[in-house]
Each structure stands twice: as structure tokens, then as C-alpha cells.
# Entry
Amino acid sequence: MGRAHEVRAAAMAKTAAMKSKVYSRYGKEIYIAAKSGVADPEMNLALRSKIKEAKANQVPADVIKRAIEKAKGGSNESYDSLRYEGIGPNGATVIVDCLTDNNNRTVAAMNQCFNKAHCKLGVKGSVSFGYDNLGVISFKYTDEDTMLDTLIGADVDVNDIEVEEGEMTVYVAPTDLHKAQEAIETLIPDCEYSVCAIKMLPQEYVTLTDPHDIEMWERLLRLLDEVDDVQEVYHNVEM
# Structure
């Protein structure tokens, strides 16, 4: 056992932490969707779409159910969507999306993360102009022509389709993410997704070579990952 056991345990703990982060994120988003209308997916399109996205990302049914029941129970929790844009070394940029019930707490946490990593917070729009906002869906499939015909037939605004090592990634307009998902599932019943989300994708990537820059950048990502309010982190650094 020894070292091998420690490595496996650490890997399992990291995987569990990542899953917990995903579950927490979708729990909040489903709660918000349910609170913003009727807490019934049959009568609330936003809620139905968010549940579909959560299931595509392997969020357990009980997490989804708890979020909806919480909204039905009249909880007074409310969340604000906040976006932070930052600049790191050698042209590195980062976008951090948060959902928070305490703006002051989140602002303080962001300042602390960036200061400790020797990076700078920018103003709104200082970084995001270099990113494209797209719906991204990845799954096992290789026939690009058939997929393109299927998506166009479903009136999906397709930005691009890529295939690499048996995995297809479809890029669509953000508003067409769930429409694209439905079209894919008519072609591939029980399709399993490795990615199904709206993302900010950098138009250009940079590579960090200086050991100190790499250390600070990795510190920033690690610190951001530890902040509960952080929902998504997008950056242009090739790791």
C-alpha cells in the first residue's frame, strides 16, 4: 500500500472535491431558475433547460430534487451573478464567474486571491473582449457531416464542429445549447456528454515558461477553486 495508496486516496479526494463543486454550482442555478418562476420544469422552460444541462453533467437526481424543493419551501436566499476579469503574467487573462449571496464577501475573496498570486483584477470588459461566448457540447461521435445536417435541420446556429480521437465537440450559439442537445439526442439516444455547458473560450492562447510565472498562475487557479462562490473560471493559458 504505502505511497500507491496515498496517491489513489489523493486522486479520489480531488475527484470528490470537483464533483462537489459541480453539484453545488448546479444546485444554486437550479434553485435560482425555480425561484424565478414556477418550481415545476413542465411549466418553467428555464428550469427545464437547467435540469437537462445538470443531468448532462452527471449531477445526481437527489441534488436536483433538493434544489427544487428548497425553492418550493419558500427559502429567502437570493444570489447575484458577478463576473471578475483579471490579468496575469505574459499576456495571461482570466474570467471568473460567481454566484453569491454576499457581494462584499466575494469581492474580498477575489482581491485576496489575485493579490496572493501577484495578479491584477481588471475592469469590466478589460479581458472578455478576447473571448467568445459559446455553447460547448462534447461526446463520443465522429460523423461530422451527419451531425452538421442534424443540427442545421433543428435550426441550431452552429459555430464549429471538431473531432479528435473519437470525441466530437460542437460549438453553438449560447441560446441554442439545449436545442442542440435535443437534436444530438434524436441522433444518438442515451448520448453521454463529457462537456455540456456555456463557456467563454479564448480567441488566442499563451504559454507561460518562467517558473515563477507558472507558480503564481497555478496558485491563482488553486485559490479561486477554493472559493465557494466561484462558479466558473476561464483563462487563456495552455497548461
